[in-house]
Specification:
With about 350 residues, the protein is α+β, with helices and mostly antiparallel strands. It contains seven helices and 18 strands. The longest helix is centred in the first third of the chain and has 27 residues. GO terms for molecular function: sigma factor antagonist activity.
């Protein structure tokens, strides 16, 4: 058969999968014996492509599955015969349109067993600090009276989700394809690789996120809807008020953001009640305020660097002008009162 038009008809039948064994043999013999331009049947190939469905599944999962098929089949890109070069050109359409999509359809209909990944959880005591290294080499410094929950390992290409209640400073290992996400109540903090501090105690009205290096995206989850609040850069801090769901963004010295990890405790415009709550977490103590009026009577600005709790209380007494008195008992109970009340 030497009529070129008949050969074209055979090639079209081959692309459509309608050629019988004898017709295939004739076509292959022609391709082996005749000097052909690899592109002489390109119009037929384009026509076959044009008849494919316009809607395709182009997700990364299809790409991954197709790569696995190609790897398992050990398909060679270099062919010695001209026949294989031409048929490989034509078969590329069949592979992409039918094999990959067919495999994805098959996989999509299978019930894949769920991969079980062990979850870890750690809760610290009052006055306790803990350093935790996650499977991706991310370092977490967990503050007192805090709980961290995380998976034993992270899956490449998926979000690295963990949960925090309390305070933690994070030094996240960068992974562009696997964002690191911290869930704290209704606040979600997402990064690729950076260092930042989160204070999110369930008993507190204010949750805060402060960035030391890199960029951090802070979002709010409300009734299943995720809404970005702000994109923070170094030296920025977001305070989220749980009760009325509002937030403010301010600036902070980057060196102060994780100061608590080195026993340097900083208070800025905090009242006595707020200070007592934080000191209970930093030190293993309890407070008994016998003069309720002192709780919000004034605000304090102070830095306690490597100080014992007794030194801290003495400095608070002096800052109050001698109006605040305290007593520390052996069971770490600190009683506080004002003038005229004991």
């Amino acid at each position: 058969m030497e009529n070129n038009e008949e050969i074209r008809k055979l090639f079209k039948l081959y692309l459509e999968g309608k050629a019988d064994p004898q017709q295939e043999e004739t076509l292959l013999h022609y391709l082996d014996s005749v000097k052909n331009d690899d592109g002489q049947f390109s119009d037929l190939i384009q026509e076959a492509w044009g008849e494919e469905p316009s809607t395709r599944e182009d997700s990364s999962r299809v790409d991954q599955e197709f790569e696995e098929i190609m790897a398992k089949a050990d398909i060679r890109r270099q062919q010695k015969s001209q026949r294989f070069r031409v048929l490989q050109y034509a078969a590329s359409i069949v592979l992409v349109c039918s094999v990959a999509l067919g495999w994805y359809s098959y996989k999509g209909n299978q019930v894949e067993p769920l991969e079980v990944i062990e979850m870890f959880s750690r809760t610290t005591l009052q006055g306790e600090k803990l350093k935790i290294i996650l499977s991706d080499s991310t370092v977490v410094y967990l503050g007192g009276s805090s709980t961290l929950k995380w998976p034993s390992r992270f899956v490449k290409g998926r979000h690295r989700n963990i949960r925090l209640e309390g305070e933690g400073f994070f030094e996240v290992k960068r992974d562009t394809f696997s964002p690191f996400v911290v869930h704290s109540g209704s606040i979600q903090t997402q990064v690729l690789g950076t260092s930042f501090n989160i204070s999110a105690y369930p008993s507190d009205n204010i949750f805060s996120v402060a960035v030391r290096t890199g960029k951090v995206s802070v979002s709010e989850i409300n009734k299943g809807v995720l809404k970005r609040l702000s994109l923070l850069t170094p030296g920025m801090k977001l305070d989220y008020y749980n009760k009325d769901q509002r937030y403010i963004v301010s600036t902070e010295n980057t060196e102060d953001i994780n100061s608590w990890t080195t026993n340097r405790f900083i208070f800025k415009d905090d009242n006595l009640a707020t200070m007592m709550g934080k000191l209970e977490r930093y030190y293993k103590v309890r407070f008994n305020l016998k003069s309720p009026s002192l709780a919000n009577s004034r605000q304090f600005n102070a830095t306690f660097n490597q100080k014992s709790i007794r030194e801290v209380m003495e400095q608070i007494r002096m800052m109050s002008g001698g109006n605040i008195h305290y007593k520390i008992t052996k069971d770490s109970l600190i009683t506080i009162w004002g003038e005229g009340c004991k």
